[in-house]
Amino acid sequence: MPSRSLVLACLAACSQALDTVQYGAFLPTATYSVANQLGFFTENGLDVVYNQVPNSTAAFASILNGQYDILTATVDNALNFRFNQNQNVTVLGQLDQGPDLVLASIPSITSIDQLKGKPIIVDSPLSGYAYLLQDVLASQGLTLANNDYYFMTVGGTPQRYSALLNEVLPNGTAVYATILTYPFTVEGEAKPSGQAPNILARISDVVAPVTSSAFTIRESSLGNKAETALLTRFIASMYAANKFLLNPKYKACSIQALAKQLDVSQDVATQEYASATNLLSGEVSPPLNDFTVSQTGILNDVEIRLKFGGFSVPPAFNFSAALIPGPGKLIDYSVKDAAVAQYNKHPLNGNCTIPCKRRA
Fold this sequence. Notes:
The protein is of the alpha/beta class. It folds into 2 domains: 19-96 and 210-345, Periplasmic binding protein-like II (D-Maltodextrin-Binding Protein, domain 2); 102-205, D-Maltodextrin-Binding Protein, domain 2 (3-Layer(aba) Sandwich). 40% of the residues lie in helices and 14% in strands. It is built from 14 helices and 10 strands. The protein has helices spanning 4-15, 30-37, 40-43, 56-64, 75-84, 128-139, 157-166, 184-189, 225-246, 251-262, 266-276, 295-307, 319-322, 334-345, and strands at residues 19-25, 46-52, 70-74, 89-94, 102-105, 119-122, 150-153, 177-180, 198-202, 213-218. The strands form 3 sheets. Strands 2-1-3-10-4 form a 5-stranded mixed beta sheet, with helices on both faces. A 3-stranded antiparallel beta sheet has the order 8-5-9, sandwiched between helices. Strands 6-7 form a two-stranded parallel ribbon. It is globular. The two termini are 23 Å apart.
């Protein structure tokens, strides 16, 4: 039970106007679910409006045009927009190392070689996950360059997961395989026999670590004190929630938060918790778990994109130098560091059970 002082603090937060944060994401991560369901945002005076993005192109358009204050998206997309398209996007920090990424297929496909000649549905042929798929399939002898398969653009993971379960797109086009992530990997595995997608490969068995989901903003936000202060409170809330999620002491409470956010059973939520806290592919940022970007992970992203011709930069472009964090660079830790300092000074408890209004 929360302490009396915490209850009073939450009651005060409920009675005060909350500052709105427009948050774009492909799916509700475990860290977001804990922050949302257990009151971390409200405790920090925030009303976080969750905007589920349809695809990576729309997501980055929305962050650049100001529709979103902050976006959680694969860092490879930030690499693409920053270095290939000269768009001023900035990564504040890393959330995970590839959230349960798998190559999944319809039940009748039981091996990768059966995908030869078939379409693989993706968010975008130019997205990081599409390049990871190329790498996994190449490890089994299938290449896009040899026309062993082809990509079909469908959209974000929720749309692709639905199509995989139905085995067809809404227009009747047959579907065979795609890349799945948390929470859909576990949700798919929980389906009855004959309906569950087959897991043909785990990305982490081919390449690890990878830097996947990252907190991304438009660079101009860092020049606005009010926006920076709002972003700092958001990241501080997510940091507190992530610490809570990764602390075994709070496992039961985190599982309850996931079950409620995802609207799944206790058993499925328990499996989702294991997925989210996996030290190789979960919502971790070793060694400190303070949202620091893994240099090994992001260089693996770069290497895979380079392998399949995914950059239009000059051949001598120095990615190692470009990925050193700092002002005006792709990665800027100023907000993350301020958020961690804010949390250390005023820790968030996240145990509020007072029914404040929150938007899921």
